[in-house]
Amino acid sequence: MRIKQFVFLLILSAFSIKSYSTHIVGGEIFYDFLGNDNYKITLKVYRDCYNGQAPYDDPATIFVFNSSGILIDSVGIPFPGSAVLPATINNPCYSAPTNVCVEEAVYETTLALPPLSGGYNIVYQRCCRNNSIMNLVMPGDVGATYMAHIPTPAQATGNSSPRYNHFPPIFLCVGVPLIFDHSATDPNGDSLYYDLCDPYVGLDPGCPIAGAAAVAQGCPAIIQPPAYAFVPWLAPYNVTYPMSAGPAISIDHHTGLLTGTPNMIGQWVMAVCVSEYRNGVLLDVNKRDFQFNVTNCPVVVASTIPSQTVFCFGNTVNFFNTSVNAFSYHWDFGDPTTTSDTSNISAPTYTYADSGVYVVTLTINPNTPCSDTGQTTFYIYPNLAPSFIPPPGQCVYDNHYNFTLGGDYLGNGTFSWNFGPHGTPSSSTLENPINIHFDTIGAIPVTVTVSENGCTADYTANVMVYPKPDADFDLLTTVACMLSPVYFADSSHGESPFTYNWNFGNGTSSNSQFPNTTYQSTGNYNVTLIITSQHGCKDTVTMPNLVQVYPLPQAGFVVTPTDTSIFYPNVHMTDHSVSAVSCEVFWGDGSHGTNCNAPHTYAQPGIYNIVQVVTNVYGCTDTAFSTVIIRPEFRFWVPNAFTPGGDDLNEVFKPVLIGVHDYTFYIFDRWGEKLFETNDTKVGWDGTYKNNPAASNVFVYKISFRDDVEDKFHQYIGSATLVR
Length: 724
What we know:
By secondary structure, the protein is an all-beta fold.
């Protein structure tokens, strides 16, 4: 197009700005030499008219570049209209789905292109492809490029490019082989070579269209010159394995026959290239990319066998079929006792050896692509065999049973139900009687008799009526104290196990068999127990004013002092309890007493928790707590002589220690021999060695310990005189 024409189209496009993203599903471009340097350019664009978001380009702009990538011309081709392609499929036995639609638009224009060294490249670009394509990375962002090459005069003059003879089927049936003639025709009779090839990418979603309409969207009017990148394949797919198939999709290099068996449902993009050679020189490549839609194919042939209508007339059955589009048959009558239970005629007859339930199979058009198989079940019974499923058991005090006839009874039979002397009513002639009541418990036999077509049969089954349980419970004591647990024991009778629902009258409940509760206030309380048997039968017992709750005494005391030294370890308790008739005190050091106005002496430093427990006239108790701190102190003194001799004076030699630990005490003679050793602060040396009295002399002592105050280590060495 000349510059003046380009500006005119630019002005027109400014009045109609649309969303130019769409779903391109394929295309190609080729040319015909018309003579006098004129070429007819044909651009075929295929669009998804089911999911497409915008109309075809109007105009569609093609660009002409020389071999150096310099733009020679751009031409806007007006939209010629489009046509919906037939929903073709790769198997005549299946009908195509309706959720995919492909539209074809054929743009044509004539260009004057005088001979040029290096030739011309004619290019059309667009965006975008379907988001649902399975073999590309982010397919919705991938555009398409269609390009044709007019060769240099040195290679060929007045050449016309090859074009494909047929468009591939829009649908492929999963698991059905594809055999498609993807051949092309070359007007000049040049040699053609076919191959699978990579589709080109094109424009992107940001600027999905080129030409005058692109300028209105703030995008470049002119596309980039060749070369162009290939589409981003999603692994494991690539140019030699463009879609999931087994055998893989392939093309015959010489005939263009495209074959393979798709094995995965989805949408797939691929491309086929036909290369044009003359005298061994490559002139042009027509790269057509397109989209295959692989789907499960609905069958247009159907094998159907009419349902059984005649029963209880022996073992011979006349079979019929109401199949659609059937021209051959294979029956299997489902008799496991023989391998001869087959037939290949349309409406056979077969006699079964015995009564039973048989699955009959009819395959129409076996061993052909249009085969289909149907099945139905036949009941061969010499007599009727009615039955019913006993309704779930109910409780004797409120039971109403409904009965439904079943089993091997399929018609409209003179019915007779017998519910026995405990049933109300005792009999019925309804097919499905309801609201039958029984006034006893246990397994009650119910019989139904059916007569039909000369056959009579009966069936008996037991109906369960469950007894009412007897709710009861015991209480360990009916006298309770506030805040003290009261224990209950189930003593119910009946069909266990039971589920329990207790109401203790104090706003609390329980589902335990042996529960307990506490009462926060004094008074008399009603207790209710509801039990439910394993079959859902219930009983309730309520005991009014069962639990009498008495008040608690109030414990309380003061102990002084609450913080003192081990040197002054005496404390005194003063009782402040209320409504108590007895009191017990626990001093926290392992000792206790019944006098709550008493002194107490602690032997060791520490923190002691004192507990007072008081009891009132009802036997109810209360507890109070306090803490006394006896702080550690440290003292050490050792004598310098002792006089063991049986006079009970100074019989042993030992230091006096208060507030120590990790204690050791040794006695040595003057030659350094150890005569005595102990770790007990209460044990001293009695003046003997190896059970013999030591003579009067001077002995050496060694004492070590850690004090309780600072945990500091102390060691003392001195002498002591033994006097006899």
